[in-house]
Amino acid sequence: MASHKTHYEDCDVLVVGGGMAGTGATFEARHWGRDLKIICVEKANIDRSGAVAQGLYAINCYMGMQWGENQPEDHVRYARNDLMGMVREDLGYDMARHVDSTVHMFDEWGLPMMKNEKTGRYLREGKWQIMIHGESYKPIVAEAAKKSADKIYNRIMITHLLMDEEKENRIGGAVGFNMRTGHFHVFRAKTVIVAAGGASHIFKPRAVGEGMGRTWYAPWSNGSAYALPIAVGAKMTQMENRIVLCRFKDGYGPVGAYFLHLKTYTQNANGENYEKKWYDQTKELVGEYIDHHPTPTCLRNHAFIQETMAGGGPIHMVTTEAFQDPHLETVGWENFLGMTVGQAVVWASQNIDPKYTNPELTTSEPYVMGSHATCSGAWVSGPEDLSPPEYFWGYNRMLTVDGLFGAGDTVGGSAHKFSSGSFTEGRLAAKAAVKYIQDQKAEGIKVTDKQCNNFKEAVYKPLETYTVAQNEITGGTVSPSYISPIQGLQRLQRIMDEYVGGIATNYMTNANMLKRGLELLAWLEEDLEKVGAEDLHQLMRAWELKHRALTSQCVTEHTMFREETRWPGYYYRGDHMKLDDDNWHCLTVSRRDPKTGKFSLEKVPVYHIVDENEKKKAS
Amino acid sequence: MMSTNPFSALAENIPSVFIQGFVLFMLLLIFFGTVIQMIHHKNLTYFFRNAKKAKLSAEKKLGAGERAAIIAKTVVHDIATTAELGAGKRRVAHVLGMWGTILFWIASVVMIFCYTSIDVETPTLWPMMWHIGAIMTCIGGYWFWLFLRVDVLAEAHPWYRIIKADLFVLTLLACATTGLAWSYTQSLNLENRWDDKVFLILYIISNLALFGGVYWSKFAHMFYKPGAAIQKNLAEADGSRDNLPPLAEAPKQFGLGIKREQPKHY
Amino acid sequence: MSTFVYMTRCDGCGHCVDICPSDIMHIDENIRRAVNIEPNFCWECYSCVKACPNHAIDVRGYADFAPMGHSVRVRREEEKGTISWKIKFRNGTTKDFVSPITTKPWGEFIPKLAEADKPNQEEINSQRLYTEPEGLNIDGELPAVPKDSFKKGVYY
User: Fold this and answer.
1) pLDDT tens digits for A489-505?
2) Residue B24 burial by CB count (10 A; 0-12/13-18/19+): exposed, middle or buried?
3) Could you say which DSSP state residue B148 is in?
4) Which of A150, A177, A180, A472 is 20 to 30 A removed from C126 (C-alpha atoms)?
5) Which candidate from C21, C112, C149 shows the least CB-CB separation from A220?
6) Does residue B151 sit at the A interface (CB-CB below 8 Å)?
7) C138:A71 CB<8 A
8) A183 touches B at CB < 8 Å
9) CB contact, 8 Å: A277 with chain B?
10) Is the pLDDT of residue C107 over 60?
11) Which residues, in sequence order, are bridge partners of residue A189?
């Protein structure tokens, strides 16, 4: 286990990350690239890795085109509305027109989909959501990836992408280490599809002891989806668009089935429907966006936050009515058991039976990811038939680095994908990556041993730092010469929490706070050169931290750049407390220079490829 | 060599009463090691408190006859064939090692107490059992040590890494290996050559380490595990089942998914 | 919430070590049994709980906010395609649930794409993915939007 032997592997398509997007990419790549070498590298074990480890109770993105339930343009309008106008409509339309075939495949593979007894169709939870018994969702899609791949590597964390040394701005592969054997792995690849995790744990969570583990988004999503491309100078978009979720208290259990299927509703501690109270104030902030139907997620959060700050809490979900129906009671509990078991544990521990008690809700700490009611991520090309010229540069889902593709939480601007949409985006990226290879764009890639060895030294440095530093002290965790991964993480979380709009300030920030945040993040970046890892597990934690820290810098830069409050309820710019469509109806794009570490940001136009339409009745 | 009683040759130089005394001393070490561990860890207190608590969620009361039947079945099936390890190499290795050790110890005691005087001829059964037991222990034990230990298999530690948990299996293997080596070198009649007594001494030390280390090693688990297996089967029968849900009433028709593979995905 | 391992049930098989998405289930050096080395990175995903052949792993709700005396246990039976849950409240209330986890034998209906029909050049050049357009179950082709309808930077 102490040996740091280097293994080299050459391949055509390297998929970094074996979650929903990664399995989708790996699976589809084989269809288009029969003779290509396809490898998927996963940090944990592909059978249960990623955000879908415990399963899902609903597929939140299904059009139902076969029954005329929705069309892709409806979904674009929905996502655009929910994100206050700021989405990549080409990416969203592209995802939405393909997602149905993905879901039909899942059905074929054995994923139990609930059916509407009367119509025989998939049972709808809401307009976009269908209900599933998805405890084994991840093992099922993992098996599909295993059947397509030449090899799946488990327990290898990819720490860096490799760049081609022959042609500028072209990808060369990736490197990482195996946290069991300790070996160093170099993957030289013609194309790389980054399908890694978004970022949880960059803001201080509400629970700070053991409870730190109960984040809404998986704790093992450490922002590799962002840090890997940022480090090689790929452009990112909408990184300021962090998401805050209104969920059941402590367990962060999902509320979707409750609102949509059980038809439960919220009320404040005095039994009032509080959302109406905040209409006028919200209209002052965002104008007519508050009149859209459905109400954008962030604005509902906003009402919740305002009500809580005004003393109307604790806010509850009224379940006592719905839970009298035994079928709805079963759905209410199984909703957690198949998706967020922790919520069932919380209720069992606190004797909360929703038949008799209305459970408490809370707003979470912020998260940065790209597949939910949010769309932070890499700036990618769209598909040729849907993208305006500014959004297209040759290959669908390709980043601004040639041969580097993204899918799932990695990709910015395509919101409301969820699991099925992420898998679909993986499929899209895979097809494009294969075409890129077939178009001979990946010829003559050169990756020298020097580049690999430089990374190797950097990768294992925390182990050496720890061992050497131990000579200075008698023992314990306090040292003037190194910090442990948890120490660094808690410092990062506090910086983001206090200066970049975490729960400490009720999601409020301003230019002065952001400036101070950047200062502190810069010092943290320097100190992370001295992170010390006791063993391979801690080494993995150390690299998770480094990816989180780089992601956080990008998030802070973007938050500074957008001078408006576009998504109240996600965060507020105290110095620009208004939505400003005149100046900021656009996307933000950043690039970090790999040589200097400096971020430069620009505005990019939002294209509306789908117009506004009257509501069509679902047939 | 396999049909020669090594203890009778030994008894020519060392009075058999000393050899027998050594065995009794080992038994005392087991007793004290286990009892002190039990007192120190209060594990009996835990065990019975837990059983009492579990009884509260029992769905039905088991009669004395039912209990006896379950205990008997547990001993014959779960314990004798190490059923807890499921199907696979670990179970085979454990069964080999466990029965090998049992045969080895029984044969040792019988030969030491009944067949060490000069005028008694040892029936071939006992030395055969002794040697075969030692060989089985070595096969099961080395197989486990080199390939099957979970920290080697699932965590990629090298086979030569030694941790506190290895105390029992290593000293047991030392006893079996040095015992066989001693029997072999003794049968060569080396007449005071340098290696004539070496393995005997190592065999003695191994036994002292094995039985002396009971307090610190997993030795006493050979008493705890059967107890736990009995408790588990009783809990399954009376419905308390450690708060686990009952087995689903559905046919086995889907084959294996994740569980078809070994726990070694790296 | 965090997992813990029962001493009497764990036999050191390593399935939990192998499956944990957080890499926090490891083998204790003193007794060679599984242990959760980092409860504050435990998501309570129950992957290890379900993977343990001896039901040796259980969960105790996070100490930050979960009072004691509760139990949420599970039995995942792959061959039967079921998952069974037993929830026990602190006050003794119990709830039981059983759900399906698959409708087909594991893996049998997942295609090995290397053996499927190869796509032709027209399909490669198109926007269609594997199984499309038939896999969408619609009449006609993959939907698209005409480019002349695009509007730049105008908001609705």
Assistant:
1) 999 999 999 999 999 99
2) exposed
3) I
4) A150
5) C21
6) no
7) no
8) no
9) no
10) yes
11) A11
Q: Is A97 within 8 Å of C142 when comparing Cβ atoms?
A: yes
* CA count, 13 A, side-chain hemisphere, C110: 25
Per-residue pLDDT of chain B (266 residues; tens, 9 = 90+): 788 899 988 888 889 899 999 999 999 999 999 999 999 999 889 988 988 888 888 888 889 999 999 999 999 999 999 999 988 999 999 999 999 999 999 999 999 999 888 788 889 999 999 999 999 999 999 999 999 999 999 999 999 999 999 999 999 999 999 999 999 988 887 777 777 788 999 999 999 999 999 999 999 888 889 999 999 999 999 999 999 999 999 999 999 999 888 888 99
Return the amino acid letter for A439. D
- Quick one: how far is CA A93 from the chain centroid? 19
| CB-based contact B250:C81 (threshold 8 Å) | yes
pLDDT of residue B129: 96
Instruction: Inform me whether the C-beta atom of residue A154 falls under 8 Å from chain B C-beta atoms.
Output: yes
**What number of other Cβ atoms are within 10 A of residue B113's Cβ?**
14
Q: Which member of A30, A104, A605 has the closest CB to residue C113? A: A30
Return the percent helix, strand and coil in chain A, to nearest 5.
Answer: 40, 20, 40
For B63, the token pair is 């009669």
Beta strand ranges found along A399-502 (DSSP E): 404-406
Q: Which among A349, A358, A344, A350 is positioned nearest to A262, based on CA atoms? A: A358
Alpha helices in A253-315 (DSSP H): 256-260, 279-286, 297-309
- Residue B200 CA to residue B162 CA, distance in Å, equals 25
Q: B123: how many CB neighbours lie within 10 A of its CB?
A: 14
**Does residue A281 contact residue A274 with C-beta atoms inside 8 Å?**
no
C-alpha B98: how far from chain center: 4
Chain B: give the shortest CA distance to residue A140, in Å.
8
> B266–A155: do the CB atoms touch at under 8 Å?
yes
- Cα B22 to the chain's mean position, in Å? 20
Beta-bridge mates of residue A246? A363
Residues C34 and C17 sit within 8 Å (Cβ to Cβ)? yes
Q: Hey, CA dihedral for C107, C109, C113, C116, is it positive or negative?
A: positive
Token pair for C118 = 């190869």
Token couple for B266? 């790296």
What tokens appear for A358 in the block? 């209305």
Residue to substitute from A181, A334, A535, A540, interface B, most B β-carbons within 10 A: A181
Instruction: Kindly state the DSSP code that residue A570 receives in the 8-state scheme.
Output: T
> Cβ distance A420 to A61 under 8 Å?
yes
Judged by CB atoms closer than 8 Å, whether chains meet at B265 and A136 is answered as no
DSSP strands (E only) in chain B: none
Q: What pLDDT, on a 0 to 100 scale, did the predictor assign at position C132?
A: 95
The neighbour count for residue A251, using CB atoms within 10 Å, is: 29
Question: Are the Cβ atoms of A45 and B265 closer than 8 angstroms?
Answer: yes
Omega within 30 of 0 (cis) for the link into B15? no
Q: What is the pLDDT of residues A299-322, one digit of tens each?
A: 999 999 999 999 999 999 999 999
Task: Look up residue A61 and give its amino acid.
Answer: C
Sort B202 into a burial class: Cβ within 10 Å, 0-12 / 13-18 / 19+: middle
Question: Does residue A513 register a pLDDT over 90?
Answer: yes
The residue behind tokens 């109960």 is: A214
Q: Is B258 on the interface with A (CB under 8 A)?
A: yes
Residues 6+ apart with CB under 8 A from A254: A57, A247, A248, A335, A336, A339, A340, A343
Predicted confidence at residue C153, as pLDDT, reads: 65
